[in-house]
Amino acid sequence: MAPGKRTGAAKGSRHNKKYWRKGTNIEEIEDAIHTKSRQKETGGVISEMKDEEIFMIDRVSTESKKPKLTNRQSAALEKITRNITAKQTSLPKPPTKMLKKPAKLPRGNAILKAQTAAKLAPKKTTKKDNFDVWSKDLTPKVDNLDNELAAEHYLKIVKKKQPKTPAKSITSLLPNVEVAKPGASYNPEESEYVEYVTKIAQDEQKLIDQEAKIKRGINPQWEKVATEHERFLEMAEGLHIHPKFDQTDGDDSEEKPDDEKTFTSEVVKCDRLTKEQKKKKEKAEKLDKSEKRRLEEKAKEVDSHNVYRTKQLHKELDEEAKRIHSAAEQRKKQKLLQKLTKRQRLGKGNFTEAEDPFLLQEELTGSLRTVKPQGHILDDRMKSLQRRNMLPIGGEKEKKLKKSLKRKIVEKRSVKAVVKGSRVI
Amino acid sequence: MKDRFKQKYTAGAAVAYMSRKQALKKLQLTLKDFRRLCIIKGIYPHEPAHKKQANKGSTANKVFYYRKDINFLAHEPIINKFREYKVFLRKLNHLKAKKEDDKIKKLYDNKPVYNLDTIVKERYPTFGSALRDLDDALSLCFTFAMLPHTRVLKEGMIESCRKLTAEFMHYVIESQSLRNTFISIKGIYYQAEIHGEKITWVVPHERGLPHVTDVDFTVLVTFVEFYIAMLGFVNFKLYQGIGLFYPPQIGQAVEEDEMETESYKEQVYSLAKPLSKRKDVEQAEDDEPLDLLGEDSDALALKIKEAKNIKSLFKGCVFYINRECPKEALTFIIRNGGGVVGWEGGANNLAPSAKNITHHIVDRPMDKMEVNRLYIQPQWVFDSLNARRKLPTEKYMPGVTLPPHFSPFTSEKAGDYIPFERLEELRSMGKDVSELEAAIPKTMDELPMRRKEVKPEKPKGIHIAVGQMHKKSKEKFHETVEKGQELKMRELMISKKHQRVYHSMKTQFKRNRNDALKLKKKAKLSKAVDV
C-alpha cells in the first residue's frame, strides 16, 4: 500500500475494532521495531538517551548561573530557608465566602413581632469599653499558625498589621500653647500694659507706613494729569477770554511756577591730564610694580624657608582642620535650630502673624464681670499649628488661562437677516 | 560595569520627597480625605532643603511630604473606611431620592465607623508621650466644648469634649496638681503638673465666643476627633493612677443608665462634689514623682514646698460663689486647694445665709454684708494660687480697685524692670529676690550721695593760722614748655607766603619719624624670629 493512501478498513475511524483487525499498517510497526533494534546495536536508543549523551557543549558560559544577590538579599534568603527547614509551615485556609441565604418572607405576625422586639430592645449604645491602651496588647493575632514569621507575613499581607512607623520627625521646638504676655492681663500692671500696647502700636505704625509707601510709589511723582481748567487755559492761549489777557504784560513774564522742576543732567567733565599728572601717574604705577615684585620675591624666600618649619606647619594645619571642623559642627547645629524654630515654607500661601488682642485703657474695667474678651482661641490655635509647621498654608488657586477664545456673534447691519417686522433703512 | 550616565532625579531629595499631588495619586484619595488622614496619623509636610531638586527642576512652592511617610500611610486600614464612607454617602443619596425611609434607617445603622485606638497607641507609644502632647488637645477641647453645634461641628463631638474636659478637671482637682493661672483678655490660662510634666492650656471666657470666619473648621474638627480618642485613654489612665472610678462617680455606686441622665451629668460638670474612690486601691501618700534630673536640691525643696502649700491652700474654707462670678474657674481652683465650694441651686446647694461660709466671692457692689465671713472679689482666688498662700483680703474687698493681676508665667531676669508689687509677691513666695533687686538700674536720686569733704570750720574773728609755702608748678614751668611757647610765638610771625611751606615740612618730618619708628619695630621683630 502506497504511503499516504488509506483504503478499506484503514479509511474508517481508528478507534473501532475493525480498524485494528484489518486497517493496521504492519509495515510501519515493523519499520519502527527495526530502527529501534538497529539503534540498540549501534549505541543506544536515542529517545531514552540523556541530553548530555546526544549533544556536545562546545562553549561554557562565563557568567555564574545564580543571579548575584546583595548581602542583604542573601541574608534574607538564608533566614527564610532556615525557618522553612526548621518547621514545616502550613498557611491558614483563606476564609470562604459565606453564601447569602435568601431572605425569608415575613409570615403570620412576624412583622408585629419584629416591631415589638425593636421597641423592647435597649437603645444601641455607641459607648465603648474603657481600657488602658498602653498596657493592652493591640497587635492582631492568627490562631492556626505556629510559625511566627509566617504569621507576621500573613498579617501584613491582609493589612491587619502595620509596617514599622517611620521615625518621628520633630516639626518645631516652639511651645504648644504660648501664654499671653503679662500686658494682656485683664487687670494689668501699668508699665506692663504700656509696654504691651506700645509694641502693638509700633507694629501697626509699621503697617501704616508700608501702605503709605506703596501709595506714594503708585502715584506719579512729577507728572500730573491736566485738569479741565488747565486744558481750557491751553486752548484759550492768545484769545481774549484767557484770564491773562487783562493783566499787565510786565507781570506775567516774571511769574514762573516754583514747583516745576527741570532735570538737567550735569555736564560730565573730561579734562585731559596735565603733563605733571601724567608723570605722577607713571611714577605711581612704577612704584606699584616694583612693590609687587618685591613682595613676590619675599614670598618665594619665605616659601623656601618653609622646609625647615614642617613640624610647625603640621601643627598649624591640624589646628586649622580642628577649627574648620568645629565651625562646621556649629553651623550644623545652627541650621537645625533654625529649622526647628523658624517657619518653613509649606505650600503656596504666606503665613500672616496673628494680631495681638488688646483693650483700650477705658475698656480695662479691672473687674472680671465686666471684662471684654478679645481675640479668638481657635484663631490662635490655627496660627500656632501653622507656626509649628504642622499645617500647610494654601495659597490662592492659579487662574488658568483660557486656551481657546470664545466666539462672539455680531450681527452686521449689512447682512442682517430680513424677517417679518424688520425695518428697511 | 557602572552606568556611565546617571539619570537625573533618581536619587537624593528628588526621591526622598513627594509632592501632595503625587501622594494623592498614589493613595487614591481625595484632598479632603488625605488631609484628614495626615492629621489623624500625625504626618506633617516638610520643606525640602533642596527644593529645586525635590521638585524636579521647578521652583514652585508645593507641599512636600517624606516619601517614607506616604508609603507608610498607604498601609493604613482607615483608608478603606474612607472609601466605604464614600459609598455610604452615595447610597444614602440614592435612597433619599427614592424616599425609602426604612432602608435609610438601616443604612444609618450600618454606617461605617473607624476606630482610632491603634493609632493613638502608634502615635504615643508611651503614656508620657501622650501627656507631653496634652497641651494642644486640652486647649482645643476646652474651646470646642463651648461652641454651638453646626453642620461641621456635630453635637456628639461637642458633648464628648465637654465630658472629657470635665473629667480632666476632676482629675486635676483630685490630684491637686494645678500650679498656675493667668486671666488674660483672651481667656484663662492654667498650668498643672502631672507626672512631672508641665501641662499648659487655655480656656476661653464664659462670655460666649465670637464668630470666626477665617478658620478652617474641617481641619480643627479632625484634630479634635483624634484628641477626643486620645483624651479618653489619657483620662482613663490618670483615673486609674489615683484610684478613681472611670467614668467618674459621685457618691454611691451609680448605675450606667443613671450616668446618662442630664442631672447626673450636670453634677459632674459642676466640679463641686468630690469623686468617690475605689476601695481596693491603696491611697498613695503625698510623695509626688519628681524629676530630679537637672535641678539642684534647693530648687527641688522649693518645688515640694510649693506643692504642699497649694494642697493646703484653702483647707477648711467654705466658699460661697455669687451668681455673677465664673463658677467653673473658681470651683476648679478652690477645690484644687482643698476648699469647699457651693452656690445657690448648685450641686452642693449652699444657701447664701449658711453659717459655715467663710469666704463670699462677689463681683459687684454689695450693700448688705454679714460679719462672720470675708468678702472677696474673684481675683483673690487666682492671685492666692499664684502666690501659694492666702493673700490678705483687704485689697480684694468688693468695691475696692484691685491690685494688678500678674502673669505667673514670666520668669524675672536680673536687670529687667520689676514692679514693686511683683517683687513683694515673689518675696512672699519664698524666692530670693536680692539679686533682682540689686540689678534694677538706679536713678540719680537713688544713687548714694557723694560725701562732702568736711572742711574745718573757720574760726570767727581774729586768729592765727599756720602759713603755707608757695609751690611752683613743675609742669607749668618746665623748660620744654617754655621753649614750645616761644616756638609757637615765632610761628605766628611767619608770613603767610612761607607758612604753607613750613607746615608741609613739618608734616613730612612727622611722617618720617613715624616711618622710622615702624621700621625699627619691624627689624626688632624679624631679629627675634630669626633667633
TrEMBL record, chain A:
It comes from Caenorhabditis japonica. Residues 12-21 have a biased composition (Basic residues). Residues 248-257 have a biased composition (Acidic residues). Belongs to the NOP53 family. This is Ribosome biogenesis protein NOP53. Residues 1-23, 86-107, 237-309 are annotated as: Disordered. The keyword Lipoprotein does not apply. Pfam families: Nop53. Keywords: Nucleus, Ribosome biogenesis. The lineage of its organism: Eukaryota, Metazoa, Ecdysozoa, Nematoda, Chromadorea. The keyword Lipid biosynthesis does not apply. May play a role in ribosome biogenesis. It is found in: Nucleus, Nucleolus; Nucleus, Nucleoplasm. One of its GO terms (cellular component) is nucleoplasm. Residues 237-247, 258-276, 282-306 have a biased composition (Basic and acidic residues). GO terms for molecular function: 5S rRNA binding. Its main location: nucleus. InterPro entries: Nop53/GLTSCR2. GO terms for biological process: positive regulation of cellular respiration; ribosomal large subunit assembly; rRNA processing. It comes from the Eukaryota.
TrEMBL record, chain B:
Residues 309-398 form the BRCT domain. PROSITE patterns: BRCT. GO terms for biological process: lipid storage; maturation of 5.8S rRNA from tricistronic rRNA transcript (SSU-rRNA, 5.8S rRNA, LSU-rRNA); maturation of LSU-rRNA from tricistronic rRNA transcript (SSU-rRNA, 5.8S rRNA, LSU-rRNA). It is found in: Nucleus, Nucleolus; Nucleus, Nucleoplasm. The keyword Nucleus applies. Keywords: Nucleus, Ribosome biogenesis, rRNA processing. SMART domains: BRCT. It comes from the Eukaryota. InterPro entries: BRCT_dom, BRCT_dom_sf, PES. Gene3D superfamilies: BRCT domain (3.40.50.10190). One of its GO terms (cellular component) is nucleoplasm. It holds the Pfam family Pescadillo_N. GO terms for molecular function: ribonucleoprotein complex binding; RNA binding. The keyword Transport does not apply. Its main location: nucleus. Belongs to the pescadillo family. HAMAP family: Pescadillo. Required for maturation of ribosomal RNAs and formation of the large ribosomal subunit. PANTHER family: PESCADILLO - RELATED, PESCADILLO HOMOLOG. This is Pescadillo homolog. It comes from Caenorhabditis japonica. The lineage of its organism: Eukaryota, Metazoa, Ecdysozoa, Nematoda, Chromadorea.
